[in-house]
Amino acid sequence: MSTSTIRPQAPRFAQSTWLVAEREITMRLRSRVFLISTGILLLLVLASILIGGFTAQNSSNDTTPVAVVGAAGQSIGNGGRLDVTEVASVEAATELVRDGTVDAAIVPDGSTPLGIGILADSEVPAALVSQLSVSPPVTLLDESPTNPFITYLVSLGFGIVFFMSAMTFGSTIAQNVVEEKQTRVVEILMSAIPVQALLAGKVLGNSILAFGQIALTAVLSIIGLTILGQTDLLTGLGMPIVWFVVFFAIGFVLLASLFAATASMVSRQEDISSTTTPVTMLVMLPYFAVVFFNANPLVLTIMSYVPFSAPVGMPVRLFLGTAAWWEPLVSLAILAVTTAGTIWLASRIYQNSLLKMGARVKWREALTS
Amino acid sequence: MLEIRDVNKHYGTARVLTDVSFDVVPGRMTGFVGGNGAGKTTTMRIILGVLSSDSGTVTLGGSKVTPEDRRRFGYMPEERGLYPKMKVEEQLVYLARLHGLSVTAAKRNAGNLLEQLGLGERAGSTVESLSLGNQQRAQIAAALVHDPDVLILDEPFSGLDPLAVDVVVGVLKDRALAGTPVLFSSHQLDIVERLCDDLVIIANGSIRANGSREALRASHSTLRYELISSGDAGWLRSVPGVSVVDFDGSYALFDVDAESTAQAVLRDAIGRGDVATFAPRHPSLAQIFREVIR
């Protein structure tokens, strides 16, 4: 019979947690589905960067025919990407825009800090706007309009990466929790280590994976932008990406503990959605909000402070330059406090629900008992 | 010694355990017997600390069992479960490490146990790919892999074929002989009868009988004897102090009022012809069980 010579010490909480986390990570890295879905995510990110990059490059290669009224021409400097037609008056410029001779007209406009405005026919001249906005850095520091397409793409990028990572790892946690409950291996685990260590290990393991995926995405984006020579965009995106990773790290722990807790209330894989749906909604919320409201400063401001959407909302605002330096810190603090409270609540639900087999555990039972 | 004292437990309004007290003695196998819903699993979960009791204590060697102690317990839950997609050996090593073993000790123990249980060749297979009987063996290995100080096994023999039962019994007896208190539940009373040294019978959440197998048998024996002789045993009916329970030609099963009456019957029987069998008939565990839970 195998007998260990020294009576082993019971592992400490941190060790138990790490053992659980380690198992979560190794089992996950062995899953083909996981590796493929990570690959798809990275490809999507790369593709959107390339599309974004080419759009910007195309517009910079083409020369855009514009009409310039008087002194307004000086504001645009001597960039060689404009085919400038000088006209005497705003009316003449308007005429040229209407008949299609030029795409847009740059006219004097005292109401903007630049002193110029743009006249265009039926659609926003994205190429011209992006050229104006990527010219001297001064324009970026001012409230010059960021290319709406780029804004949309950046918002969508943050939204989709958050959504996909949170969903992938959130549903993994949910499935693992139910698997342990369904196979009753949880009874053995509970007899070996504290329930809190089990929960913490699951959350930690999956958070590390999610964080790794996000960090990889971030690095890929930065490399992609560098290769494309989008240094201006990179300058604008660098900090928001770093903040996104930081926010995601904490925000995911919040979601992960919610996924684990709600999943522990059911006993079969088929029933998972009956309790995790509210959490799934919370994951989808920032994604849809940022897609629909990336041009609405009020909604973005609110989003950047609500813990569930802050990981997307705050980086977008930072990119747009509408957030003061202290705002991400405050939002991060709110997120951290919410996360701490949620972990406490989640471990309560988890502990109360793990041994209850069969029908779905009722919310009241899960929270009290 | 593992001592369970005055443990009570209720779920909502249902009282599932009432003043449950018994001992699990080191070096002995204690059988835990009771019908479905009698409270066996609940009691075991309380001993393991997986469930909390309303009142009562579980002590080991005189001091209250702490979570640290419990990490040195081995548990086999009634509803079997291991990670289906994890390899057998990997899973055992993981569980051993959760119980505090080093990687090397965990690997050594897992390897030895798998050999012992006849699972050596399947060490690298996933649990879901094993046959039910082999899954059961893996489950037993999971309870033993960290060399536990106390073993609590809920229905360890269900689902095992007779050969596998023998293998498992051998492994468990080794542990008991090495001084580990072993508590196991089963409703296969014949196995319990063969295997256990001590017996605890529970019904409706309270302990009905508790003690060594021999003591229980003695206290429930009814001075019943069995006689198989060469001639017709019908004469027994007229012996004073004898009441015949069952009779068939040369076979008779009868109760006597005293030991001396039985001896007199034996002498008489030898005088009447050859006696093939004359033996006291101990009540089987099944009989005792039926009697005490009534």
Task: Please give the structural blueprint.
The complex is a heterodimer of chains A (369) and B (294).
Chain A: H1 13-29, H2 32-61, E1 64-69, H3 72-75, E2 82-87, H4 90-99, E3 104-108, E4 116-120, H5 126-134, H6 137-141, H7 148-182, H8 185-192, H9 195-227, H10 231-263, H11 272-293, H12 297-303, H13 310-320, H14 327-353, H15 363-367
Parallel strand pairs in A: 1-2, 1-3
Antiparallel strand pairs in A: 3-4
Helix pairs in contact in A: 1-9, 2-5, 2-7, 2-9, 7-9, 7-10, 7-11, 7-13, 9-10, 10-11, 10-13, 10-14, 11-12, 12-13, 13-14
Chain B: E1 2-11, E2 14-24, E3 29-33, H1 40-48, E4 55-60, E5 63-64, H2 67-70, E6 73-76, H3 88-98, H4 103-116, H5 132-144, E7 150-154, H6 162-177, E8 182-185, H7 189-195, E9 198-203, E10 206-212, H8 213-220, E11 224-229, E12 242-248, E13 251-256, H9 259-272, E14 275-280, H10 285-293
Parallel strand pairs in B: 3-8, 3-9, 6-7, 7-8
Antiparallel strand pairs in B: 1-2, 1-4, 4-5, 9-10, 11-13, 11-14, 12-13
Helix pairs in contact in B: 3-4
Structural features, described:
The complex is a heterodimer of chains A (369) and B (294). With 369 residues, chain A is mostly helical. Chain A folds into 2 domains: 13-54 and 148-367, no CATH class; 65-123, no CATH class. Chain A contains 15 helices and 4 strands. Chain A has helices spanning 13-29, 32-61, 72-75, 90-99, 126-134, 137-141, 148-182, 185-192, 195-227, 231-263, 272-293, 297-303, 310-320, 327-353, 363-367, and strands spanning 64-69, 82-87, 104-108, 116-120. In chain A, strands 2-1-3-4 form a 4-stranded mixed beta sheet. In chain A, helix 12 crosses helix 13 (310-320) and helix 13 (310-320) packs antiparallel against helix 14. Chain A is elongated. By secondary structure, chain B is α/β, with parallel strands linked by helices. Chain B has 2 domains: 2-218, P-loop containing nucleotide triphosphate hydrolases (Rossmann fold, 3-Layer(aba) Sandwich); 221-293, Alpha-Beta Plaits. Helices cover 36% and strands 29% of the residues of chain B. In chain B, helix 3 crosses helix 4 (103-116). Chain B is elongated and about 75 Å long. The mean pLDDT of chain B is 89. The chains are: A mainly alpha (369), B alpha/beta (294). Chains A and B meet through helix 1, helix 7 and helix 8 of A and helix 2, helix 3 and helix 4 of B.
